[in-house]
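Milestone M4 deliverable, item 7.
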Amino acid sequence: MRRGIVLGALLALGALSLTVAAMQQPAGGQQPMVVEIDKLKDNLYVMKGGGGNSSVFITQKGVIVVDTKNPGWGKPLLDAIRKVTDRPVMMIVNTHTHGDHVSGNVEFPAEIDIVTHENTAANMKEMRPNSSAAPTPNPRNIFKENNGKGLATRTFRDMMTIGSGNERIELRYFGRAHTNGDAFVYFPVHRVLHVADVFPGKELPIMDANNGGTAVGYADTLSKVLSFSEKNADVLVNGHSNTTTTNADLKDYIQFIRGYVSQVQSAKKAGRTVDDVANGWKPPAGYMAQPARVRSNAQLVFNETK
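Output delivered:
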């Protein structure tokens, strides 16, 4: 194993952030597994690479990690955490069921507390592929492979508070969107909200019907998030974006989602097919869309629109 440190800079709300890379050299001459570390605040980091972005919150009692990346990336993530603190990881919060956010759970010590929304806990037991994934007869279930290690030990329905004072975090649920169990992690002392893949970046999201997601209700759920965030948060940590975003970005994103759903509904009303939408719809300037998502999301809009 070898480790390197790469220094960079991230500007968030006028504050300089330190970027460090923790590297693990895999066998077989493959590319190094690199976790980049962006410092948002003194005890709050965003760790990128290997799947969904992970937030790392350092408290006096230990470290709280939000999302643990793809299979095999739990160890590089732990190495990255050790670059910034020697305190033990005491809790994982998973924002939703997808493998690029939960699979690293199995590489953390077995005694760690794992918290999810109650719907996500049920989804993680099944590990169904997302709606945009290619059909897979037997999709990998990393938790069954590890005899249940890494599954949720605690769940919440609408809200959960963890810790107190400046080390308090809040877990909130606003309804179905990306899945039926999307958790939002709020760090009050820093006015930061981890929104994960409900707002992955400037791209069309996965509206995952296989795991309870919705297309028609997606923007309404995001509007509830925005109502909360405008009063309580200044910085949003996205699921896959290279930088943080703002409430203004979220407001624009809601309109992007509404526009997409409305256009697909209009296509259905005009007698067009899902294939017509998949072959003809293009994202507006500044946004991107993977073809598989355009198609699967359009199918869900058609299914939900009577």
